[in-house]
Amino acid sequence: MAASPDFDTSAAHPARVYDYWLGGTDNFPADRELGDAMIRAIPSLPTMARANRSFMERVTRHLVEEGVTQFLDIGSGIPTSPNLHEIAQGIDPSVRVVYVDNDPLVAEQARAMLADVPGVGYVHGDLTEPESILADPLLAGTLDLSRPVALMVVGLLMYFPAELAPERWVATLLDALPAGSTLAISHPTADFDPEAGAVANAAANAAGIPLVSRTRDEFAALFGAATLLDPGAVPLAAWRPDTPPADPREVYYYAGLARKE
Hints:
The chain is of the alpha/beta class. The protein has 10 helices and 8 strands. The N terminus is likely disordered.
């Protein structure tokens, strides 16, 4: 794709690397170089990226079927069909969605795609500044924060090491939502293949993208005071699968859904 003058394409960006793994075209040589370096460590990374996307689709369907009609998607990434709002509104057209990301390319693509979509908006924001996300007038203009909201943090917290305590930013967002709101998180782990995980993380860090894996206990701690719902903090492929996987540990991610009481 042609590069916009508004953003730097010489350095890899997580959203564009992820787009590359998904088979998208909104990526540049630096993104593909890092993506390939990480694939050399874990050849199944594109498959895992698709599995993570599938988790987003499953948890969205589950929540809408449970009556959830509002979503706040943090680190939404480059629009890839089916997008969250397409899945949700396909079940219930009244669903309202706000996407949030900090990549200018995502902003460019999302605003163009969502310009005429009712009940859906995009906020250019960063998880590290949750107060700014909450203060954005588009958020209040799209979502009713007196009613439950599904907070989606899918495949994002891996970019923040423990010393940054990213769970505090998630907690700030969840604290602003009413009781009954939910929190969905997915996150890579080295529990299933420590050696491959270390090599992939090192490749990302060498390219200037902090990337960390978390153990199951560290993953579960990201939910803070929210109550994990069935089936708990589990290998991603085992979270309410459409078809039971032969080996859920083949996807090096954990996933979970929790509710704010």
